[in-house]
Structure to design on (294 residues):
């Protein structure tokens, strides 16, 4: 296992020297994202992630979510396609929906799973029927990380085409360590998960760490406490997925997505104060920030 290198601090100059792929002339050239998420407890998370993916430049986004919310979400976000899925008795996506997800993923460039998941056992049951059968770039967010806790090698068949976006608590559960271990050495724990599961890991809040399976590492500083609000992580996951859809490699999408997410928080904090802005206000800041970085 390779230990993480001393992290590089992400700056505008670093990103300008690592430009994103050209977006292409139409929606097909800009990539297709399939977003698997949602539950009765958290139906709106897919909307946050979907808008962020589109704001980051993805050409097409489809939300695979509970059928009972699909119509309302389609009206709220007419740019997003819908793949309605059956719910289980607890109000979460039933694993019997896996065939429909796998079929739709066959025509996607990226599968983002996790926004709106609320139970790790249900997440593992669903993803265990989906992920071994897909051959697209995968991003796992939040409680979808439980799949890698149960199956540390569950994404090895993707040969590194995978990103994990988690907060420190989720990273600890994925790594099988205590929260204090992550607090003491977030870069080291992220590096171990990255190497073990062959994924690029994005972890953090006001300071984010990005680590690749080979031990390359970056730190994104800033963002502010407002990014600790509910739904903020869904936005970051959507940014990463949208950049992957555009053709960015996993490490690039993770670094760019983490940095843009932090700058969105700072823009809103400057306008309304460090606390009190909403996660749904973050995606609207994305195009201007990305234009400035270009």
């Amino acid at each position: 296992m390779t230990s993480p290198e001393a992290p590089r601090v992400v700056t505008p100059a670093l990103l300008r020297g690592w430009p994103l792929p050209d977006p292409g002339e139409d929606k097909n050239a800009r990539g297709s994202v399939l977003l698997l998420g949602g539950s009765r407890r958290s139906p709106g998370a897919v909307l946050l992630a979907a808008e962020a993916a589109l704001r980051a430049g993805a050409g097409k986004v489809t939300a695979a979510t509970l059928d009972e919310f699909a119509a309302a979400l389609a009206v709220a976000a007419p740019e997003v396609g819908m793949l309605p899925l059956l719910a289980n008795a607890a109000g979460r996506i039933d694993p019997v929906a896996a065939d429909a997800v796998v079929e739709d993923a066959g025509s996607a460039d990226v599968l983002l799973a996790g926004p709106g998941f609320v139970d790790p056992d249900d997440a593992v049951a669903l993803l265990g029927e989906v992920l071994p059968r897909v051959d697209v770039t995968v991003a796992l967010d939040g409680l979808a990380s439980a799949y890698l806790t149960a199956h540390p090698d569950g994404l090895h068949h993707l040969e590194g085409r995978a990103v994990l976006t988690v907060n420190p608590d989720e990273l600890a559960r994925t790594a099988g360590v205590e929260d204090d271990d992550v607090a003491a050495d977030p870069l080291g724990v992220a590096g171990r998960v990255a190497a073990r599961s062959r994924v690029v890991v994005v972890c953090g809040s006001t300071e984010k760490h990005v680590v690749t399976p080979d031990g390359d590492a970056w730190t994104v500083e800033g963002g502010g406490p407002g990014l600790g609000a509910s739904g903020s992580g869904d936005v970051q996951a959507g940014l990463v997925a949208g950049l992957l859809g555009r053709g960015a490699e996993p490490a690039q999408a993770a670094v760019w997505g983490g940095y843009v997410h932090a700058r969105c928080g700072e823009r809103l904090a400057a306008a309304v104060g460090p606390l009190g802005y909403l996660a749904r206000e973050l995606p609207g800041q994305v195009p201007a920030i990305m234009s400035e970085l270009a």
